[in-house]
Write a structure and sequence with these properties.
single chain; alpha/beta; 16% strand; disordered N terminus
Amino acid sequence: MKSILHILGIFSCLCYCTLGQNVSVGPDVVNIGVLCAFDSTIGRVAKVAIAAAINDINNDSSILSGTKLVVQMQDTNYSGFIGIVQALQFMEKDTVAIIGPQSSVVAHVISHVANELQVPLMSFAATDPTLTSLQYPFFVRTIHSDQFQMASVADLVDYYGWKMVTAVYIDDDYGRNGIATLGDELAKRRLKILYKAAIRPGAKKSEMAAVLVKAAMMESRVFVLHAHDDSGLAVFSLAYNLTMTSGGYVWIATDWLSAVLDSAPRLDSGLLSTMQGVLTLRQHTGNTNMKKALVSQWSTLVKEESGGSGFLLNSFGFYAYDSVWMLAHALDAFFSSGGNISFSPDPRLHAVAGGALNLDALSVFDGGMLLLEKIRKVNFMGAAGPVKLDSDGNLIHPAYDIINIIESGLRTIGYWSNYSGLSIVSPETLYKKPPNGTIENQKLRAVFWPDETTTTPRGWVFANNGNELRIGVPNRVSYRQFVSADNQTGMVSGFCIDVFAAAINLLPYPVAYRFIPFGNGRENPSYTQLINQIVTDEFDAVVGDVAIVTNRTKVVDFTQPYVGSGLVILTSVKSQGSNGWAFLQPFTIRMWLVTGVFFLIVGTVVWLLEHRINDDFRGPPVKQVITVLWFSFSTLFFAHREDTRSTLGRFVIIIWLFVVLIIQSSYTASLTSILTVQQLTSPIRGIDSLIASDDPIGFQVGSFAESYLVHELGVSPSRLKSLGSPDEYKAALDLGPRKGGVVAIVDERPYVELFLTNHDRFAIVGADFTKSGWGFAFPRDSQLAVDLSTAILTLSETGDLQRIHDKWLSTAPSSATTDLQPDRLHVYTFSGLFLICGVACVAALAIHACVLVRQYSRHVAAEQSSGGAAISRSGRRGSIRSFLSFADHREAQYQGKCSSKDPAALAASGSSSGVSSFTSSNASSMSSR
């Protein structure tokens, strides 16, 4: 039995070992292909780096378990056709993957071959963003896409405050798609490409120069150069000869330039002189162990490969090196998952077989999908940094070094990453912190721009294309002090024109322009139509008395307002003579009533507090009523003759006299204003009363007031009447609404103030019910509008704007704005005072009542002790009458009577005599009053 178990154990071990060998052991040799341009800056570095990676992998026993990588390299020479032929040749030799190509143009073509034969295409230099589309599933980019590079360029443009750029690029798949991505990234930041200067692939220098000359005539001075190494250097040489790299210019080159400069053993001073102050980007690589090892042996590798012609390692070399390792890790996982190298004929190729093309030799890689899956799951630390693809097929942690080219060489001024944007801290440090891409955290070191200045160029000048700026001006018929066009001489003058000319003179560059009058010369033109001339490209700008309103800002850009404006109401007014009842106007009716009631209340309260102790508040009922009325209203003039003796009475009087003082002072001030200042009256008090009426309303021809009244305030168009001149204003207001005129005119304040300088029977009523201003209009995103805004602010600060105003416009009289309905004094204005006085009266009465009840209780107790049970029964029957009688009696008499009575005599007199005595005493007291 033991021997049988022993045999079974040995058999199980053999099966397990056999199974493990079938899973993990791959073929002895795996064929891979490499496509790159050997004579290019990137290609020659990549060729050496790939050979080094193949050697390192084949000598590493920890990967591929003895399987060797055999590489065959082909030179595409930037040709898509040659790349197709070479890719097909690889397929004849059972190639499982292709490293490359470096050209995006070639990658677009070969990707179709990779899709058909299911061979992964791993490119270390094809950065065209469109290659990662769903159309090319077998294309794997092992370097960062230009989508991120263009995002970094857009952030640079935004960081320095530039609004537009000129894109100079090679017009192939690489250049077109890269610049298209740049346009998208700029648009996200509300920036734009002003002009695209496309250069034909293989163009001669004369063609390039013509393109640059045309680009130099545009407004933008920020150039983004996206080209190849040979064409890019030619562009810089030509730009230098055309003085396009001098002061005021900005050049941003993509990562092709850093690859050229990093690969050069010695930087050519002549080459650097053509690109002083240029900014360029470099694919960022971390300081990893594999990178250190590759750098340390690079010089030896170059000597072995090139036979002594030296060139240095650039960032593309690191990514080429990592691409081979990425494939090796994927193959290792592929074999561990049971994958095997096998190929099958392609039935579609078999259908077109024949001739000398030998298409029958091409076959489909059966394990292509599995290998592609393993490639997308690779995760290791390479020479350039972490090698891992995200869900979109892009390498994680895209980052770039930002380099400034100066006379002595290259200087890193910061970094960009999609994690935290622009920073002077390395991306590896930022990855350890929470992402923070706010504007406040975007920082770069100082840049030396062309002409060795550290002042950031403006990035924009007026277009030097030989064309004058076509400026439309309104051909006004009325109010020609603002804009006046002479149809005979073509001269244009006025306040607005002088402001524009003064602002233009402050610009640091010349601007050629000519004024073009707009309108028929018989009536004021429509300003909405005038603004639309900019949209239709009839005018390059509009200068005049143009109000900045919402609908216009949607289609054009305005400068800083140079005149404050707003819609106001102009109406006729008449003098208001004083009348016999003018003294009642300061208070409203309710205020008069409440004040009178409080006079009576305070008088009554004081009488109640003083009645028992003060002879001035005693006597017959008629006299007491007269006393209360006299005392109440005499306090208005502080002429009350009655003296207050109680503490509570004095407390109430003090508070009341303070209230009277405030009311009297307010009344006096209001009445003085009514009798001396307010001398005009009008049926219209403001915009609310104007809308509520059904009377006609006038407006100026061409003004936006008509649209505002109809669409914003809901005024019926039938109520509106267009008026074209100040004389028509006067005539319509004089006629009034009953005789075919208007009740009021709605117009902008500058026109109305100018009208009032010569017409004193009219006035502005109410406040401005819109707030706006006048500005100069330009097309959207115009830099000239920005610079003119700065110039207008300068004119305002220096006082020149006010001097131009005084030259053309007179100052309106002080009565230009009149409040025809002065505010009357309401109860609410004095509610706090009335509340304090009321609380004081209630509190005083409450205290007085408590004291009085206490005194009455003592009095009743004394009477009961002296009068017996009869008095007690009689007191219960007339307690209320007794209390009122007690409260009405003078306090000193009760105190005297109570103290003079003998308790024994009171007890002997009996209850009836006690009651009789009290009643007779009360009656005699009443008769004495």
